[in-house]
Every structure is written in structure tokens, then in C-alpha cells.
Amino acid sequence: MLIKAQRWIHENILQFGRFHEAACAYRPGSKIVDTASLHCEARWMVKMDVTNFFESILETKVYKVFRSFGYQPLVAFELTRICTRIRKESPRRIQPSKAGISSYANNYVGHLPQGAPTSPLLANLAVYDLDKELSLLARQNGMIYTRYADDITFSSVTSTWSRAKAVQLLCDGHAKLKSHGFWPNHAKAHIVSPGSRKIVLGLTVDGTAPRLTKQFKNTLRAHIHYLERFQLSNRPPHQVLGFDSILGLQRHVFGLAYYAMGIERGWGAARLAELKSISWPAEHGIAFD
């Protein structure tokens, strides 16, 4: 019942919210390649990441999202409780009244659960003001800003930038994250200077259009190479490649090929043709058109 209610909220409420243009994830029609293309030919890049992104969005922010849709306080509260999970280690600052519905009277603050149908769009709506501030920071520095969930990227095509400016931008960005209740993931913070390989959302953006990384291509080629020769092995191919079944392996490699076609159509189509030419075990495999 809970997941059905969350899906209804996602489809009938959240999709009609106001999203910042820099929030590229989870929105209808949004594609990774489109986001990556905004950073093509960048000379400088500053990348940031958020620790426990969804868990850092507490129910107070979710409540404000539903209030912004025009719902009365009690309705917004009920919707918030449907879409959040209890965070026991974080007591409320304001203790609930003893009167009223007993189930409301607890000292715990909820947060967005990762994997819930409502969490992605609620996250985008809840951090609208953060996106505004980071977007302004980017404009002030002559940069482009995008956020794909917790993956934050600033880039500039100009060569007049300097490492000192990049460090300052990184510090300013982290300060804004903290002011909105997020903790920067310092291990994933990077400054990418001219001449270094630049990757956004798993795609190389050094040229005029996003391209697949060499690692991605090598991995898919290796899978295909083995599958074309799996008859020579005494073990089923899915076991050798770490999958539970032939069906799971098929879905994975065909999914990679179709994804590749969306980035580099010619290369992806060639790999797809190779996969279709493989003699899959008929009792376990399925056909892909």
C-alpha cells in the first residue's frame, strides 16, 4: 500500500512541481547525454558530491515542498510522513503536543528514503533554493552549473581561469552545501585543469560531443569477446562473468549496447549486431530486437 501511495503522489503531484533548470536528474525527458553535453570542450572543471544526499533531506524540507503546492498544514504533514522514513538519531527541536493523534507524538525526524518512488522528485524540489545559489555562483564565475542528484559539476570553456579561482569556487560551493544542511563528500571533490581528461556522468566531454569512456568500451568488448567463445568453457558464461543467470547477463550486455547507441550510435550499433549474432542457450535466453 505504501509504495502505491508514493507512486500516486509522484504521478499526480510531484511531476507538476517547479524544478530548477540545473537539476537534470529524474525529470521527464532528461538524459545523461544532454547534461554532459553542456560541459563539452570545458577547459576547467570543478566537481563536487554530497554525502548521503537523500538521507540529508529531512522531513521539514519535504513538508515545505508540499506546502508550496498549496496543501493545508495537516495534509502536507500526512503527505510528508508517507514519503519519509524515521531517522531515530535526530530528535525534533520542538516537542509535539500530547494532545491529538498519538502516532504523531514521537521525537524522531524523518528523511527521504533512497529508492522510494517519491524521493527523486522531492529531492529536486527540496533543493531548489540551493540550485539557485549554486547557479548564481556559477554565473558570477563565468561557469556552467549542473546537478545530477548528488553529482555537482561546474565548468568553464575559458582558459583565463586559474587553480586559485577553482579552489575558491570549491570552497564557496562547499559552504553553500553546508548552509543548506548537506555535508560535502571531500573524497569526490575534484579540480580538473586544462589538458586533463574530463568526465561528466560517466561520459568523456573533452570534444564537441559526449563520448563513451575507454573503460566502458573495453568492458563491453570483453563481455562480447568471451560470449562469442563461451562454448570453449566448461562453465556457463553467466557464472564466469558474475551473473546469476543467462537472462540477467543478456539484459545487462544488451542494455549496455543500447545505452552506447544513445551516445555513439555507430559504435553501439556494431556491438549490438555482435550480441545478436551470438548463439545464446535457447532454454534460458530471450530475444532482443
Kindly describe this structure.
The protein is an alpha+beta fold. The protein folds into three domains: 20-55 and 123-204, Alpha-Beta Plaits (2-Layer Sandwich), CATH 3.30.70; 56-121, no CATH class; 213-276, no CATH class. The chain contains eleven helices and ten strands. The strands form three sheets. Strands 1, 4, 5, 6 and 7 form a five-stranded antiparallel sheet that branches. Strands 8-9-10 form a three-stranded antiparallel sheet. A two-stranded antiparallel sheet has the order 2-3. Helix 3 (59-68) crosses helix 4 (73-83), helix 3 packs across helix 5 and helix 10 (246-263) packs antiparallel against helix 11 (265-276). The radius of gyration is 23 Å and the shape is globular. The model has no long low-confidence stretch (mean pLDDT 88).
The largest sheet, given as strand count, sense and whether it forms a barrel, is: 5 strands, antiparallel
Radius of gyration: 23 Å
What's the CATH C level of the largest domain? Answer: Alpha Beta
- What's the pLDDT, averaged over the residues? 88
Termini distance?
Answer: 35 Å
Q: How many helices?
A: 11
From the 3D structure, determine the CATH topology of the largest domain. Alpha-Beta Plaits
Q: Which architecture of the largest domain would the CATH scheme give at its second level?
A: 2-Layer Sandwich
- Series of H and E elements: HHEHHEEHHEEHEEEEEHHHH
- Quaternary assembly: single chain
Considering DSSP H and I runs of 4 or more, what fraction of the residues is helical? 40-55%
CATH superfamily of the largest domain: Reverse transcriptase/Diguanylate cyclase domain
Class from helix and strand fractions: alpha+beta
